[in-house]
Amino acid sequence: MTTDQSKQDRDEQAAETIGERIFLVVVDNSEEMNVALRFAANRAKKTNGRVALLYVVEPSDFQHWLSVGNLMQEEAREEAEELLQKFGALAHDLSGIMPVLFLREGDRKDELLSLLDEEPTISVLVLGTNTEGKGPGPLVTALSSKFVDRLHIPLTLVPGNLSEADIDAIT
């Protein structure tokens, strides 16, 4: 299949799902990710949409011994799968529909931008801002400044210090 044909197929698939908004959340262990997930799930539920979750396994810095580096990468992938299952179940409980799960390996920013280019069905990117007062976070900073021109969907920033009641009240 040619690149033009695969792009056309993706565009047709996207056209079939128009009306279903897909809210993408980047998964990690931060407090603000939980806030972003709740916000996205609530919005998906109220708009007959769906949540999508992306976890990116970043390359291991330990490459001195190949077998140790491979073991660390395998453990990181297992942890990623567990987190996706955990947060996928939470997204399902909150929104009432099974989320779409994406697991990638590489640089988080690069993989996120690639996914957005490859998946025309994703409608909104939802990120939580840092709660520790050290700026909004590296991904938020990169996407809202240097890489903003690469986004072709809305970027929703949710303050990471919102309570569940606050999120429920505004969604």
Q: What is the CATH homologous superfamily assignment?
A: HUPs
CATH class: Alpha Beta
Give, in order, the helices and strands.
Answer: HEHEHEHEHEH
Nearest-integer average pLDDT: 86
Q: In CATH terms, what is the fold-level topology?
A: Rossmann fold
Fold blueprint:
Layout: H1 3-16, E1 22-26, H2 31-46, E2 50-57, H3 66-95, E3 100-105, H4 108-118, E4 122-128, H5 138-143, E5 155-158, H6 164-170
Parallel strand pairs: 1-2, 1-4, 2-3, 4-5
Helix pairs in contact: 2-3
Features:
single chain, 171 residues, alpha/beta, Rossmann fold, five-stranded parallel beta sheet, 6 helices, 5 strands, 18% strand
Description of the structure:
The protein is globular, with a radius of gyration of 17 Å. The protein is an alpha/beta fold and 171 residues long. It has one domain (20-170): Rossmann fold (3-Layer(aba) Sandwich). Helix 2 (31-46) packs across helix 3. The chain starts with a helix and ends with a helix. Helices cover 49% and strands 18% of the residues. It contains 6 helices and 5 strands; from the N terminus they run H-E-H-E-H-E-H-E-H-E-H.
Summarize the structure.
The chain is of the alpha/beta class. The chain is built from six helices and five strands; from the N terminus they run H-E-H-E-H-E-H-E-H-E-H.
